[in-house]
Each structure stands twice: as structure tokens, then as C-alpha cells.
Amino acid sequence: MKKALILGINGQDGSFLAELLLSKNYEVHGLVRRTAKDNLQNIKHIIEKVTLHYGDLADPVSIQHAINVSNPDEIYNEADQDHAGISFNIPSYNYDVTGAAVGRILEIIKNTNSNIKYFQPLTSNMFGNISETPQNENTPFFPLNPYACSKVFAYHTCRMYRNNYDMFVSCAIFYNHESERRTDNYVTRKITKSAAKISLGLQDELVLGDLSAKIDWGYAKEYMDAAWNIMQQENPDDYIIGTGIETSVEDFVEQTFDYLNLDSKKYVKSSANLLRPAKNLSLVADYSKAKSHFGFEPKVLVKDLIKIMVDHDLNQNR
User: Fold this and answer.
1) Per-residue pLDDT averaged across 180-184, rounded?
2) What is the average pLDDT across 57-65?
3) Alpha-carbon Rg of the chain, whole angstroms?
4) 173 and 238 Cβ atoms separated by less than 8 Å
5) Are 198 and 65 in a shared domain?
6) 38: domain range?
7) What CATH number is given to the structural domain containing 273?
8) Could you read off the pLDDT of 205-231 as tens digits, one per residue?
9) Between 208 and 88, the higher pLDDT residue
């Protein structure tokens, strides 16, 4: 039986990954922060099937302990501060737990058991202000926020450990991936949750920032399947994971309200107070490498994603 350690198992991605690994008969261990002990909603249905360890990416001793106790074949790092907008308010925290912590983890693996396979999720935000569309694995980075800068650091750190120490270290550059488990501070969940409440008479309006932003949105559950496939390849490598389709925030809003038979123009407003200091250009994935290597092909596109999220939010508010 294979064993896996998921850092941040209680988050959106970590919880979907835990379900997937359990379905493949893994022994699953998860790292959660002590401050998140009451935030295990995403894994409450599998809590008896996984082994939890308390720790923090800022505390290498706790990571070392979790690795020693779990003795995993694979480690998936799904724990960091992953909100680009929020990263402007807590830049130092991002540089540490999203960037430097990756180096700490890999150094622990190198000194503990260099045969452990390691997976590092990255972000399309690393491309930032780039004119090349779509982006592939060779597109240069131009990060525009502290979160993206930290991920670029993580990317190069992973490549250094892979090349210098012959370790199995693979990365996925994930484009925006959403689900019914997204937290409320992400625009997609804000939209679907607000639309559901408006349809039920529980909310009057929805205020957003830049409605013109165009984003490549996919389904988190499918992207975790891609993460597992990346780890099963013969050699470690880096892959772009996305849908190759861009949708504006405005279109996402309209499709969401249309699904509920509502006119979005009656309820949605835009506020300059919610705009970010810097705006990415069009980020669209060229996932042809992942398709070629392990058959990745997104099945849940925006229309289906909206249905999944809205149906969940309706049920939550009834």
C-alpha cells in the first residue's frame, strides 16, 4: 500500500486529493495547522479514514515530524497562502510560507529520504504581464503580486533540487480551479453564493471589482486527478494544467444569474475599491504537454462548474 502525506489536507485541493488517493487505496496522512482544527469541513466525511498531524509550513520541526511519522512515498504540498489579492496585504507571509517553505520541505526530504516523491502546485499568476497567449511550459514568467513572486521562487527551488540531487520533484502550473469547496474570498464563490442568496431573497446585491478580467477556469477535482497522474510519470517534470478557454468575470456573472433565471444587471455593481494594484493580462493554458504525457483533458467547463457551485450554495442556504 502506498502512503501519501498531503500538506493542507483540509483545503479545497487537499480534500479532493485525499478522496482520490483513498479511492486508489493509499494510506493517507494530512498536515493541518493547529489554528485550523475547527476548519475541517471539507474532510469531515473522510476524517476517520485519514491520519492528521498538526503543523505549519513556517515550522520545519513540525514538517520533519509529520514526514518521520507518516514515512510517505509521496508528498503533495497543498498548503500555502494562495490568494493573489490578499498577498498584497501580507507579502512577507507569502514570501515565507509560499516560497521559502518549499525549500525547507525539500531540504528535509533530501536529508530524510530522498526517494520520497514531491509534488508542488504553482500558479498561472506567475506569467502575469505576458503578451504570449496561450502560455506553455516555456513561457517566461512576469509575476505581478507577492503570491506569484513566491511561486516563481518555489518553481526554481523545485528545479534546483530535481537537477542537483536527482530527486523526484514535479510541478503543475495550475490555472484558476474552482469548486463548491472554494472559500468565500474568491470571486467565483462570491458570485455563486451571492446569486444563490439573491434568488432566495436573502441578499439584495453583489459588489465586485474588475468585471472585464478574463480567466481560464477549471474544476479543482479534475486538477487533483492531474496532480496524481503527474506523480505517476516515470520522470519528474513540469506541466501546465488548465482548460484553454478564457471567460470574463462579467460572463461568469451573467451565466450564474441566467442559471437562476435572474437578470444580473439588476443586482451586480462594480467598485473601484475592489481593484488590485496590478492586473494580469489574458492567461490561457496550453495543456498539450499534459494531454500528450498522460491524457489530461478537462471535462468540467465553466457552464458545468457554475451548476455544481450554485446547486451546492442553494442547498446550503435553504
Assistant:
1) 92
2) 95
3) 19
4) yes
5) no
6) 3-177+219-241
7) 3.90.25.10
8) 999 988 888 999 999 999 999 999 999
9) 208
Grid coordinates representing 125 are 499568476
Handedness of CA 31, 121, 221, 230 (dihedral sign): negative
Tell me the three cell numbers of residue 225: 486527478
Residues 229, 242: Cα–Cα separation, whole Å: 15
Split into its structural domains, the chain has a count of 2
d(CA 225, CA 235): 18
Segment 53-66 mean pLDDT: 95
How far, in Å, CA of 182 to CA of 232, rounded?
Answer: 27
Assess whether 137 and 262 both reside in one domain. Answer: no
pLDDT of residue 282: 80
Residue 293 lies in a domain: no
Q: Quick one: which of 132, 134, 126, 173 has its CA closest to 153?
A: 126
Grid cell listed for 11: 483545503
Show the CA angle centred on residue 157, arms to residues 153 and 162, nearest 5°: 150
**What whole-number distance in Å separates Cα of residue 153 and Cα of residue 37?**
29
pTM exceeds 0.85, yes or no:
yes
Q: Which residue has the cell 435553504?
A: 318
> Is residue 132 located within the same domain as residue 44?
yes
